[in-house]
Amino acid sequence: MSAEIRALAVAAKSAARTMAATSNDERDAALEAVAAALDRACSEILAANREDLAAAQPRLERGGLTKATVDRLTLTPAKLAAMSEGVRAVARLPDPIGRVLERIELDNGLQLEKVSTPIGLLAAIFEARPDAITQISSLAIKSANGVILKPGSEVERTARAVVGAIRAALRGTAVPEAAVTNVQQRAEVDELLKLDDLIDLVIPRGGYELVRHVQSNTRIPVLGHSEGVCHIYVDAQASFGMALNIIDDAKTDYPAACNAVETVLVHRQIAGAFIPLLAKRMIERGVRLRGCSETVATLRDANVTAPVESVRDDEWHAEYGDLILAIRVVPDMTAAMEHIAKFGSAHTDAIVTGDQQAAERFLQQVDSAGVYHNASTRFADGYRYGFGAEVGISISRLHARGPVGLAGLTTYKYILRGAGQVARDYQGPQARPFAHARRSHSAGTGEGESS
To answer: Which residue, 444, 443, 420, is CA-closest to 432?
Structure first.
């Protein structure tokens, strides 16, 4: 274990404890200072990003990096301005800390409260996403958590410049500088994963291999998803125009995103008419098609000349992350839901239909973090949900689920205020009775009560 990494984590943990006593106004002031610092450091950050891009170019040419990765890595003045504005947007969100989630009067003068609190120290491990640095850091500060950032090597220089600006901004605020820090070396990831006595939550944000590695090599709780295998089911009562627009957006808007659609399921009743239209639209958009035997036959009968690869039964779980779309014909909605349950990743799945009863059944029975009716899967995003930003998307059924914003970075504790009461007074034949009276409380949040 590196003494340096442990010392860094100890300092970050101490900073997190200090932050727990800060006010919302103090944390908001820190976020404003961070946003202003990012604006001032624009030239230095963009210069560092150009160095990262220059280092990435040979890897792109050798096939070691994808164009989508390089696109995510690239910073522009407009994107950097959006990053600083995102920090300010987080500052404008309601305070997630100190919210009374529940209040119970156990007895006269014995009041119990369930109160939202920070988780503590976070470790965020992510790939070539400069904007992830500011999103995760701002959410950590707003929720009074410390955070250790481990960016991918592709974004190393950019991350160093951005984190440097953040830490410099924090020096004049109530938030300790050590609350946001970063490590660079790949070997340091495994060292962080051993610090279960200091780090309270690990957040991997990246591809399948990264998330699986984290999940397999730590005893620290992990918040993340390993795959984004999203589906759109086109029901017999779907509007073809609406379905085509939704699928187009969900596949081509950002195909590398985890909320991009990978498989479209089509009701057999409309397959002969709809699938050729879908194929034409996708081919025009540069999408490579794959399909079941019925899909291949339907397109052959419709004289669609573009090649359509057959999908083996063991390939329907694929997350392509590219301009590739799988199409499967299903006999009915029950079969569509069974396919999603078997091959999906519980990320985001959608139905397109004009049948409200069918839509409600789909929304109730599909057990994914996001289930949509007549909307693109690309809406699965913390900013689009109104959370300000997100640290990632969770497919867990415990704690946070879906896009994880401020509420997902909080836990709670029970606070009991008494006047000398002791437990034995409530035991035995002469025991005082508990009142257990629920009292009204205010617990508004921008993310509901999912966390």
So the answer is: 420
Q: Is the pLDDT of residue 107 over 50?
A: yes
**What is the 3-class SS of 391-436, one letter each residue?**
CEEECCCCCCCEEECCHHHEEEEEEEECCCCCHHHHCCCCCCCCCC
β pairing state of 110-118 and 410-417? antiparallel
CA 301 to each of CA 10, 20, 196, 276, 287: distance values in angstroms, whole numbers, following the listed order: 66, 65, 59, 9, 20
**Pairwise CA distance, residues 201 & 120, whole Å:** 8
Q: Give 398's contacts (C-beta < 8 A, 6+ positions apart).
A: none
Q: Which amino acid is at 278?
A: L
Lowest mean pLDDT among 169-178, 228-237, 301-310, 341-350: 301-310
pTM for this prediction: 0.86
DSSP state of 222: B
Beta carbons within 10 angstroms of residue 239's beta carbon: 14
For 344, left (φ over 0), alpha (ψ -120 to 50), or beta?
beta
Q: 């994808």: which residue's tokens?
A: 66
Return the SS3 of 146: strand
d(CA 340, CA 245): 21
CA angle 214, 216, 220 (to 5 degrees): 65
The answer to whether residues 193 and 148 touch, using CB atoms and an 8 Å cutoff, is: no
User: Among 445, 341, 345, which Cα is nearest to 402's?
Assistant: 345
Instruction: Please provide the size of the chain in residues.
Output: 451
Q: Residue 356: which residues within 8 A CB-CB, separation 6 or more? A: none
Q: Are 165 and 45 in contact (CB under 8 A)?
A: yes
Q: Give the tens place of pLDDT for each residue, 3-12.
A: 899 999 999 9
d(CA 362, CA 317): 20
- In this structure, what token pair is assigned to residue 62? 């050798």
147, with CB counted inside 10 A (0-12, 13-18, 19+), is buried
d(CA 318, CA 345): 10
pLDDT tens-place string over residues 109-159 = 999 999 999 999 999 998 888 999 999 999 999 999 999 999 988 999 999
Domains of the chain: 3-97+120-223 (3.40.605.10), 230-379 (3.40.309.10)
